[in-house]
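debug: dumping io for the single-chain case to check the tokenizer round-trip. Nothing else runs in this session.
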Amino acid sequence: MNLRWKPHDAQIAIASPLLSGEVTDVFAQCGRNLGKTDLVAYLLWRWALAFPGSENYYFSPFMKQSREIIWASRRLQNMGPDSELQDTNNSEMRLIFNNESFIKCDGSDNVDAYRGVKPRGLTVFDEFKDFRPEFYEAYDPNRAAHQSPLLIIGTPPDNENQFIHVAEEFRRNPDKLFFQFPSSANPHLSKKWLEDKKKELYLRGDGDVWEREYEARFVRGGASKVFPMLKDSHRKPHDEVLRIIHRDRRKLQWFVWADPAAASVFAVLFAVLNPYTKTWYFLDEIYETNQGEMTVMRIGKRIQELKHTIIDHPAIEWRQGYDEAEKWFASEMFDHFQEHFEPTHKMKTDKVRGLTLIKDALLHDHIVISDRCKKLFWEMDSYRKDKNGNIPKENDHLLDCVRYLFAAANYSLSPEAEPKENPEIKPWYKIEDDFPHMKEGVGFDDEWGIE
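debug: decoded output
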């Protein structure tokens, strides 16, 4: 094998900790053309030969993609000598070795087939940015049975998804290793070609593509991104958001808005608006995809619990609404919980105008998103136009709630003057007239300061 292929320094850095047993979990964030396909083929062969009877797996996002990347090109089959192989199964994309080890290639689109698989060898996740999230969630715990090693490798995505979250986990965990190598770490790549590609992409206005795909950096952007102005600074810890709105709690307008569904996603968004600063605070969300949990009884109970979790006080009145097309939801909420939900009247609203208003609010930093609103941030970050410049109707359930909220509140960025007290008007009665020992603030709720 070593006569057939010689690794360069970056490939050695990634492979050595796995081969030596120093760690079992490695994440390699790489630029294009680093040589990752040859690297993973080599590692899979090494594992199959070194550990008789081992079960080794290569996954890309799709089975057809695996066939194109590593099987049809014969880069996997030709990495080692045929004399070590007992059989090659083209239909299954499986190499069976003389020592009873095997290497199997498949895709993350085949989730159900691997829920019970407990591998006894190396697993490789290639082009991880496009993996189905449920595949990683289903497969990763299976490795614990035999402490089997895992190599995750690929270029970073252009929006926040599972790749970013798992990469951060590997960065933080001292028992795991994280690498980041640009394309230039491959000494066989022409430096002139890389410089020309960089100039070409920046001149075309695609500098973010260069940073992601060749420098291996996570950079949001791209011409198709609907909300390129969305920044990490728009997202804040939940407790910090509560402290911010505590100062103006009596001035705020409180909202719960629902985008009901019976089959796809049932979304509910909890928000407050400061009408004087024009700032929206998105506090929490429900994003239910399990059809068994989409009943009004279950969702309604969760709505009530979350309202009480955010602030439990009768002085706070929540304005509640729903997508007008789902009248069954409002009827059942009233029947089961005696809660009134008003229709959205979305037919009177323009979607493009609503999205433009969200953009303006982001640009003026008039949107604050609690870190509990993970799906809302994901929808905004990944919202993109298609190749024809149109906005597809997908992954926008909580975004629809935002548009409905803006419409219900007649939201605009025009400032309003806060009401001021007239210093000449004095209250005819003060509590201290009858109770001199009482002072302002005594007896107020410690957390929210509400009488």
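debug: round-trip ok. DSSP finds 14 helices and 15 strands in the chain.
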